[in-house]
Every structure is written in structure tokens, then in C-alpha cells.
């Protein structure tokens, strides 16, 4: 599996590994409403801290509007319909120095297995 550096700084701080390829013709744009399934784990020990799959409901948000961590806005914008990928987000692409207590400690690197289910074009 190829590892793709998606970081703006090209410093390996946001890495994507495609697990399952999606439709190469179809991908979302900034402002679209995206629907994803995900499992989030701490990179240091694999502890799961969140999962939409456990809730049996996809997570929905507007892409590129800062509603989610930066790693998702950048990473999911690179995905195609039906694609499943691992996004490895360094602290600057996740929750930074503050973390998101109690589940996510300060300066944590996070792994997300994300499936782009669908999206709706911005109106």
C-alpha cells in the first residue's frame, strides 16, 4: 500500500494510506456535505476513542469549513466515493497541544480509518 503525504508543509504530518480504492471519477469539493464512517484510534497504542460504526450511523459535515479537525478537511477532500483510507494525523492536523480530554491526550497523533460513503453537492 502506498503512503501519500497530504500535509501542506510536505513534512509527513498528514499521511493517507488507501485500504480500498473508490470510484476514480467521483470526489467531493469544499462546501459539499459529506457522509463518512470512521474509527479513531490513538497512534501510540491503538486505543479506540470514537467510532461512527459503533453508533451505526454515518457522520455528516460540511467539507472544508473547519467543522472537523484539519486532517479530515484535507484528507477527505482527497478521497473518492466508496474509498476506505487510513488518515494518520499529527497533532497539528488533529487536536494539537490541548488534545480533547479525556479521550485524546495533548499532542496526540491519531489514526482514522475513514470510508467516504457519499456526499451532496453544495447548493
UniProtKB/TrEMBL annotation:
Molecular function via GO: peptidyl-prolyl cis-trans isomerase activity
Domain PPIase FKBP-type as annotated: residue spans: 31-120
Source organism, top-level taxon: Eukaryota
Residue spans crossing the bilayer: none
Reaction catalysed by this enzyme: [protein]-peptidylproline (omega=180) = [protein]-peptidylproline (omega=0)
InterPro entries assigned: FKBP-type_PPIase (IPR050689), PPIase_dom_sf (IPR046357), PPIase_FKBP_dom (IPR001179)
Secretion signal span: none
A Pfam family reported for this protein in Swiss-Prot or TrEMBL: FKBP_C
EC id: 5.2.1.8
Keywords assigned by UniProt, alphabetized: Isomerase, Rotamase
Name of the molecule in the record: peptidylprolyl isomerase
Organism: Acrobeloides nanus
Amino acid at each position: 500500500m502506498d503512503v501519500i503525504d497530504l500535509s501542506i508543509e510536505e513534512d509527513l504530518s498528514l499521511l493517507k494510506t488507501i485500504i480500498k480504492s473508490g470510484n476514480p471519477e467521483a470526489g467531493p469539493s469544499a462546501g459539499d456535505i459529506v457522509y463518512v464512517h470512521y474509527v479513531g484510534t490513538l497512534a501510540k497504542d491503538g486505543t479506540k476513542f470514537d467510532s461512527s460504526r459503533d453508533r451505526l450511523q454515518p457522520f455528516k459535515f460540511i467539507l472544508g469549513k473547519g467543522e472537523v479537525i484539519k486532517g479530515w478537511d484535507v484528507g477527505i477532500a482527497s478521497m473518492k466515493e466508496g474509498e476506505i483510507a487510513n488518515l494518520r494525523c499529527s497533532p497539528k492536523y488533529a487536536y494539537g497541544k490541548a488534545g480533547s480530554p479525556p479521550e485524546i491526550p495533548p499532542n496526540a497523533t491519531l489514526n482514522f480509518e475513514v470510508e467516504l460513503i457519499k456526499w451532496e453537492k453544495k447548493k
